[in-house]
Design brief:
Number of domains: 1
Strand order of the largest sheet: 2-1-3-4-5-6
Number of strands: 6
Number of helices: 10
CATH topology: Rossmann fold
Helix content: 25-40%
Largest sheet: 6 strands, parallel
Shape: globular
CATH class: Alpha Beta
Structural class: alpha/beta
Amino acid sequence: MPRIAIVTLHGMGRISTTYAEPLRVRLADAFGAQWNEFWFGAVQYQDLLQANQDAVWSRLPPAVSDNTWSELREFLLFGFSDAASLEAGKERPGSVYTQAQERIRSVIAAARDATDGGPLVVVAHSLGAHVFSNYAWDCRQDSPAAGVWKESPVDDPYLRLGMLTRLYTTGCNIPIFVAGHAEVEPFQPVHPDFRWNNYYDPDDVLGWPLDALSESYRALVTDHAINAGGLFESWNPLSHNKYWSDSDFLIPLETDLRELLAASGGPTAAAEPFFVPPPPPM
């Protein structure tokens, strides 16, 4: 039986249902036979939004949808309507906010069953960090104002993140959602070994450090400024989608997973060093 669960959440924009497969393959290659000690699950909520976004895009006149800036306009429509739709009307029963949380809770329930309640590691990219933060905040409230925990509370410590030991966020844009509030507080984890590592590239305009948000964030989160991407992305906003293939993120993730595995009583034999292919020649 696997000992540790890894759950991923995707970011904004048009997302493939196999978005986490490259990360899973890289980790499986890095761990070899030890990979059997892990369970890997991917939360997918983009399908709650994409059909509506495609319908809006299809109604735009060609002068807007088929010009020099059409790709940027499409990204803004899909990406920022994701953020707006997941927040708008979240107190309303059956909201997209609640449906997204239902998807998270379902994958975490599968993680619980697969590992018999073992340690939980969450890897969330971009908007997914905010979506998961909302889930974590709501599930820790006695009377949540919105979300799945308001509509269908479940008395299950695992689903309420009692075994969440690691949270990795990449290209996190939580500050965009909370900067307008006078008080900015993170969710409060319950596991004594919990650690939150936030990776951002200073050239990524959608990826932000978190320790500047408040003293409580500074106490909870460790920020890591990295240079994500290869020759053509690391110096510009294209770095936003390169974290999960960059050694500056992958090697610390792999190292931490090995430590968790050893602490949980799993095999401790050293594996081959993680290999990240070099950028293609110019």
